[in-house]
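Practice problem 4.
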């Protein structure tokens, strides 16, 4: 049903071979349209052969259309009053050898330009010790920009990058966690986030200015 629905939008998917790695891993993408989770789950799940479990704000589980896809793909509910719980839910999916999807910017961009990334994706990788696959979404905001009620016919691209390893951060991160050095933990997470966001920016043909 969803394939037919989105087939009217011209699409281009590049870098699909970068998804041919053994799960578990995390897919992290920029976020400019309410449809981004749909598009990534729909098209990249066909390549991975398994669902991508996206971290999704709880309010979208109340939307009838979203609820169907989130139910099928076992989306991970992010309770805005208790976001830490979703972090550990995502860890459980990774521990079971599955694929987790996340938008590091947390919320949609107003104008389609990449925003400053938050540390959730990097923290998840540093905890779970899994590869991180950056994805650049191009012109998804042209289909349904923030604030629009009806979609427009527009082409979009999904550009999948090579997996990123954050192994170089592990020793310092482990030491900081062991010593409960909150400032160092935050510093390492921010540095790893910057590396990830720069990769996503390149894949979406943007610059990451943060």
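Answer key:
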């Amino acid at each position: 049903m969803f394939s037919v629905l989105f087939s009217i939008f011209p699409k281009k998917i590049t870098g699909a071979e970068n998804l041919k790695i053994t799960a578990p891993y995390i897919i992290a993408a920029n976020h400019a349209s309410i449809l981004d989770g749909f598009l990534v789950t729909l098209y990249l799940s066909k390549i991975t052969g398994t669902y991508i479990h996206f971290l999704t704000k709880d309010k979208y589980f109340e939307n009838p259309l979203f609820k169907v896809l989130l139910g099928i793909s076992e989306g991970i509910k992010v309770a805005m009053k208790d976001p830490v719980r979703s972090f550990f839910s995502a860890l459980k999916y990774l521990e079971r050898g599955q694929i987790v999807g996340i938008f590091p910017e947390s919320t949609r961009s107003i104008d389609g330009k990449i925003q400053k990334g938050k540390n959730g994706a990097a923290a998840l990788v540093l905890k779970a010790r899994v590869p991180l696959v950056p994805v650049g979404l191009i012109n998804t905001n042209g289909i349904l920009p923030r604030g629009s009620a009806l979609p427009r016919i527009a082409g979009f691209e999904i550009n999948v990058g090579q997996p990123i390893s954050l192994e170089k951060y592990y020793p310092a991160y482990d030491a900081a966690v062991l010593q409960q050095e909150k400032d160092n933990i935050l510093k390492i997470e921010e540095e790893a986030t910057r590396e990830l966001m720069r990769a996503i920016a390149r894949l979406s043909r943007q610059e990451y200015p943060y």
